[in-house]
Amino acid sequence: MGAATTILSLWIAFAVTHMTFSSVRWRPRLVSALGDRAFLGIYSLIALILFVPMVSVYFGNKHAGPLLWFLGGSPAVRWLGYGGMGTSLALLVGGLLRPSPASMMPGKAQVAGAFRITRHPVFMAAGLFGLVHLVMTPVNAAELAFFGGFPVFAVLGSWHQDQRKLQTAGEAFRNFEAGTPFLPFSGADRLRGLGEMRWALVLGIGLAVLLRMFHRSLFG
Hints:
Elements: H1 3-21, H2 27-34, H3 36-60, H4 75-97, H5 121-136, H6 141-168, H7 171-178, H8 190-196, H9 198-219
Helix pairs in contact: 1-3, 1-6, 2-3, 4-5, 4-9, 5-6
């Protein structure tokens, strides 16, 4: 089995288990049998068992397969990528500081900060991370399978969370869902959201600068 096929298979297994075990049908049964803490522990362990080998396979087979494209030679594309990584990390910080009410460990259903940018800041941060790398790096089959999985899973995982919460949560979440955009920057209050998450922006941009400085030594 080639590296790209292995990575793709692990992405599929990760997505299927992640969404199946958290579904309306299976999560209540598993929580009833295991308890909340045990369920979350096993759920997280399964995710790690699949995700860590996927990362390992990719780093052991970077640029495997024929070159498909490379757009990062252009200065304009590189700066676009730097901005994308800063945005991705700012969304990640904003989503961690204020957990989404759609997540497995939900926060308050309050429309503010990163939620004015997207209803799923952590998921969409991962998706934007993948898209940036598909633009910035030389893309072979291994890169396409690895980095391409992030935006696909971000969209599918976010949609799955919405459907589960719309069935199980109350009116507060339905109002939250109606008042927040799904895709990043597709809502009307994005500028207000950026203002409300200014510290997350500062941290995100700072992390992006540090990662850029040490990228070669950390990741090759």
